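SH3 domain-containing protein
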Amino acid sequence: MMGFKTTFSLCVSSALVAATAQAAPQQLQVLAVTVPVRAEPSVTSLSLAELSRGAVIGILEQRGDWYKVPLDAQRAGWVQMAPAEYGEMTLVVFDAPAGVAAADGGAEGKADDGIIAARPGATSGVPQAAVLPTIDPSQVPPPQANLPRESLSVPDRWRLMQTLGFKFPWYDPYNQNVLKADLPVLKQYAPDLFFNLGVVSDSLLELRRLPTPVSGQIGIAPGANDIFGRGQQTVMVQNLILNLGLIKGDTTFRPPDYELRFVPVFNFNRAMVQEAGALRIDPSQDKRRTDNFVGIQEMFADVHLRNVSDRYDFDSLRVGIQPFTNDFRGFLFQDSPVGVRLFGNRDNNRWQYNLAAFARFEKDSNSGLNAVGKGLRKDQIYIANLYRQDWPWVGFTSQASIVHNRNQETEKTYDTNGFLVRPAFLGDLRSHRYHVTYLGYSGDGHIGEWNLATSTYFALGHNEHDPLAHSAQKIRAGYHASELSRDFSWIRARASLVLASGDKDPYDNKSTGFDAIMENPQIAGSDTSFSIRQGLPLIGGGGVALSGRNGILPSLRSSKDEGQSNFVNPGLALIGVGADMDLKPELRVFGNVSYLRFMDTRVLEVLRAQSIPSKEMGTDFSVGLHWRPFYNQNVIINSSVAALRPGKALKALYGDKQGTLYSVLFNMVLSF
């Protein structure tokens, strides 16, 4: 009995082996658009090739839903059967026709026998070895092969809505508008030229109380024997900004091919003070000044050089008068110089770069605009920036900067009102040249729930002559600014820190007070803060200011816009807190409190020939509102009140009787 069972098992096994050997070989056909062929049966394995739709090829081996197929006489790879985009499978497996071996298609040394080519325009379609689902007769039939396309011409996609009856006034910026680059223009030259017009009206009324000197030649008020006069001042400014741009290219999906931009600014300003000689060098002129000016703030050509990836990473070149900010908050350099800038990005915009060379224009003294007619200053800036997104934290952008400022200005220069601006009215009044290199790191973004903006700079250079030391000096100075904030629902709380090194000995061979090229700091309340918005004078200490308008550094320059950098200064330490409160979608209220100190007062003691008992500058308070009555940027109303309560150092400079300094401003911006 046992012998019979053993004999029966051997017979069954032999029959199964024979049946397997005689089973029909199998093939597969690709139904997806493409299927990758991988080195191993894994989706993470290296892709060796791709099979296109319709390809039929023999199967060498199967492992689950992976099939080994031949590529050529020496190579084979694996393809996976998986669901495609609309639910069908990427592959279909079927028995090979009679006479086709299992290894046919590459195992015998023929490279392409297993792939049936299907080319556009062929007389026969792809052979469907597998049975595909029948077409639902109720559906629209598929297009037939080799038939000409039947279509009706329609207007371009920009004017299609107008053809359907949707037409909008030319002055309506909220719908399709040829003035807002919604519709192409000059189609006889190119089909994708767009024109963009922007018009901005910026109106300002400012009331302030600042220390004002009495003229050396005349005192208006009876008994005005002191060097300090009445400090009430009123300023009215109206700017009309026209932004004209011509762009070639569809900017929805890729950078434009080129851009031409022209931005003139028409300025009207009026200032009223209580002391003669404060507005003009000639004290016999009125205590009121009315002026107007037209400045060119932008005039450049931007040419798209090339795309370097399928994600439209690019290189572009911009030549002409162009706005530029070196860091995220305007701590070092923010201006509209003329120059050449090469910029672009890489790795899907994770890396960005700037390479630029600029020359600065002379400025109109009363408006701060570019005075193109006065020509260029001998003041050049060379910049190299590299940005990295999501480093070192996701959501945080880091920037490394190398900025070189080379100043060769040796001729005496006076501003529009007759005041000497170069060289500064300080020390021996000798002209001097300097060159300085700034090495910097900046970052902006968020770390979890915390927002952080930070910048750190080291200044290294050489000044050929210092007016106080009467000799050449090395420049070695440092600067750091950070603002940390966090959102609590509709409130953002902020903390600010600014540190700028000061000079301890103005007579040695080293300048250690930090100064920027052209600052416009956005920190600690920015232009609503009194100490940043208002320029503080240094009365009785030479023809220089303690700090410039829209600047925070006590750099002792003759003018922030027109003067030279000065690295012999008292430095600054600022710590502040503030909050931004979105009371309504259209209304934001913000406030800030900052405490300011000098780093060192030695240079002030030399200039004023007096002892400064403290480094305390004072406490700055400011509150303001930002109102958008129509929930957009077309009408914006800003208002703020700021005050500086002088500390012991400022009282020593301005007198013990000097009360609280203040400013009140109203600003309305209308945009089209």
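thats it. The two ends are 104 Å apart (CA to CA). Confidence is low (pLDDT under 50) at residues 1-21, 105-132. bye
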